[in-house]
């Protein structure tokens, strides 16, 4: 019998960082059902840390085994330099953290998991430390830096990108904003369809194999999909409108 690892089911054994071997992504923030489904307004403005965030693998990165998944999660989440920065964050100004995170990214530049550290550290600064809320040219430069870093990866978390590009209006050129926005739309649309297909396939396999705890696994998959699709359906039209306006400006 083929064993499927469902996205949310993994939180039962791996703690708060479930991820799907099928979609080849790691889900970094295990949000409660309340947060995922009922805080759309908060996700849109007041708390950037409620935005969906998943680390996306490079397309050419080998798909790991379940055991490799566990080891990988520990390496990504518990990188000692990053843990130290995060643990001491409350005592420092954002500028100090910004400097330390940039040094960390330079340090991991040639690492096997550089793609993961880039995404994790960028999310930490943009959302957890709420860099996106700081209204200054200095903050804009840092938002530009982390947005550029994210664009180097396969990350396609449309909510985070939308807020980044919105903040970079007037700082990036219209052409640069429009090109980035269209790239993000393409990646997000492809990921949305892939996630949908993956969930549907996993549900069919669970039913076919009469997998133990079938009802619970199907319920978890449904909640996982609702969380992903709710944010996509919120931000996809917003980013599309922004791109349309940017393209109109440069035409």
How would you characterize the overall build of this protein?
The chain is mostly helical and 251 residues long. It has one domain (11-250). The protein has 11 helices and 3 strands. Strands 1-2-3 form a 3-stranded antiparallel sheet. Helix 7 runs antiparallel to helix 8 (137-151), helix 9 (158-167) packs antiparallel against helix 10 (174-209) and helix 9 (158-167) runs parallel beside helix 11 (214-250). The chain is globular and about 55 Å long. The N and C termini lie far apart (56 Å).
What is the compact description of this entry?
The protein has helices at residues 11-14, 33-38, 40-46, 66-77, 80-87, 94-107, 114-128, 137-151, 158-167, 174-209, 214-250, and strands at residues 19-20, 25-27, 54-56. With 251 residues, the protein is mainly α.
Strand-helix topology:
Blueprint: H1 11-14, E1 19-20, E2 25-27, H2 33-38, H3 40-46, E3 54-56, H4 66-77, H5 80-87, H6 94-107, H7 114-128, H8 137-151, H9 158-167, H10 174-209, H11 214-250
The number of distinct β-strands equals: 3
Please state the average pLDDT score. 81
Q: What separation lies between the terminal Cα atoms?
A: 56 Å
What is the number of helices? 11
Provide the gyration radius in Å.
Answer: 18 Å
Low-confidence runs of at least 5 consecutive residues: 1-45
The overall number of domains is 1
Biggest sheet architecture? 3 strands, antiparallel
What is the percent of helical residues?
A: 55-70%
- The SSE order reads HEEHHEHHHHHHHH
Morphology call:
globular
């Amino acid at each position: 019998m083929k064993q499927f690892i469902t996205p949310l089911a993994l939180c039962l054994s791996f703690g708060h960082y479930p991820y799907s071997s099928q979609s080849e992504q790691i889900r970094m923030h295990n949000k409660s059902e309340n947060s995922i489904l009922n805080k759309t307004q908060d996700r849109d403005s007041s708390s950037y840390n409620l935005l969906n965030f998943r680390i996306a693998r490079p397309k050419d990165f080998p798909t790991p085994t379940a055991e490799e998944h566990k080891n990988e999660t520990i390496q990504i989440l518990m990188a000692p330099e990053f843990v130290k920065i995060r643990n001491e964050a409350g005592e420092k100004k954002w500028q100090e953290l910004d400097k330390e995170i940039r040094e960390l990214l330079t340090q991991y530049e040639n690492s096997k998991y550089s793609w993961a550290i880039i995404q994790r550290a960028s999310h930490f600064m943009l959302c957890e430390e709420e860099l996106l809320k700081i209204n200054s040219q200095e903050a804009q430069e840092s938002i530009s830096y982390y947005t550029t870093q994210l664009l180097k990866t396969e990350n396609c978390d449309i909510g985070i990108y939308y807020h980044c590009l919105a903040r970079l209006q007037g700082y990036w050129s219209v052409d640069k904003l429009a090109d980035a926005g269209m790239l993000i739309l393409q990646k997000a649309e492809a990921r949305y369809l892939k996630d949908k297909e993956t969930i549907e396939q996993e549900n069919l396999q669970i039913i076919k194999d009469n997998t133990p705890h079938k009802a619970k696994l199907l319920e978890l998959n449904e909640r996982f999909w609702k969380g992903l699709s709710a944010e996509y359906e919120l931000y996809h039209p917003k980013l599309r409108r922004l791109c349309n306006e940017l393209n109109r400006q440069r035409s």
